[in-house]
Amino acid sequence: MDTARYKAFIAAAKGGSFMAAASEMNYTASAVSQLISALEEELQVTLFWRSRKGVSLTSDGKRLYPLIYNIVRQEQQMYEAAAEIRGLIVGDIVIAAYPSICAAWLPQILHDFQEKYPGVRIRIDDSIRQDVVDALSGGRADVAFLTNHHDFSGEWTDLQRNPIVALVGPDSEYAAMDAFPLADCEKIPIIQSSHGNDKDISAIYEKYGLTPNIVYTTRNSSTAAAMVENNMGVLMVNELSTHMWHFNVKVLPLDPPQSIMFGIAVSALSTASPAVKTFVRFTRERLSAPERL
């Protein structure tokens, strides 16, 4: 099967232009355009909206993306399996993960993994939880690092437990305290990342029947931390996130203490590529030791 058209479609969807796809595939932009036009003619649907700024998927293109991606992925897995038979581990892995995990865990894991398996190429997509879940569920990521709220299908392994902490500003009344009283979230300004849809934090509010006074929401947790530094409110995040910043804030445990379990998820390990299986096993061995939980 000639999968060049499918590969051009995936590359253009990821890159946002035929030029970006051409660069990735070592084709000309004109050749990529012809491949995608041929695919649209074959399927009798319009896959991309075209403009001077680039291309974006139509609703039909979005619906077909995971199916076409799987065709390309299966071809790649065939070659990866053949390489494994020859005693090699090669291939591509797409990892979707919280930014905090990307900053705190992945650099050392990926460094050591690449030293052992130099034939594997890795791409990292760091984003908020919903994007991580969507990437795994939609087949755009092979592996996901996140917390499990039972909102995705796939195989899950607990890795490490991490405390939830509160960030307070240098002039905050809480700066002199040893812990942040969780119940106070109902009366003081709260800053929440993930556009206010942080399931890890929302689950804690629900657990105690609290209605937080969320005054500010932002997508980026580092933006939220900068707001805390300016005494605009309190931010609750996983402790790993604090490793990414150097803001003038105080980090406090919660009262009562709260924590979340980070883990690794794959859609189906039995059908994953040799490279993905090897990476998952490597990561589990590094992070899921009982003494670390």
Can you describe what's shown?
The protein is an alpha/beta fold and 293 residues long. Among the domains are: 1-88, Arc Repressor Mutant, subunit A, CATH 1.10.10; 162-258, D-Maltodextrin-Binding Protein, domain 2 (3-Layer(aba) Sandwich), CATH 3.40.190.10. Helix content is 41%, strand content 24%. The protein is built from ten helices and twelve strands. Strands 3, 4, 5, 6, 7, 8, 9, 10, 11 and 12 form a ten-stranded mixed sheet that branches. Strands 1-2 form a two-stranded antiparallel ribbon. Helix 1 packs across helix 3, helix 1 (4-15) packs across helix 4 (59-85) and helix 2 (18-25) packs across helix 3 (29-43). The longest helix is centred in the first third of the chain and has 27 residues, at 59-85.
SSE order in H/E notation? HHHEEHEHHEHEEEEHEHEEEH
User: Into which percentage range does the β-strand content fall?
Assistant: 15-25%
What is the CA-atom radius of gyration, in angstroms?
Answer: 22 Å
User: Unreliable stretches, pLDDT < 50, 5 or more residues?
Assistant: 289-293
Percent of residues in helices comes to 40-55%
Q: What is the CATH third-level topology name of the domain at 162-258?
A: D-Maltodextrin-Binding Protein, domain 2
Structural class from helices and strands? alpha/beta
Assigned CATH architecture of the domain at 162-258: 3-Layer(aba) Sandwich
Mean pLDDT: 89
Helix count, DSSP H or I runs of 4 or more residues? 10
Gap between N and C termini: 47 Å
Biggest β-sheet description:
10 strands, mixed
CATH superfamily descriptor of the domain at 162-258: Periplasmic binding protein-like II
Number of strands: 12
Using the alpha-carbon principal axes, give the shape. globular
**CATH class of the domain at 162-258, please?**
Alpha Beta
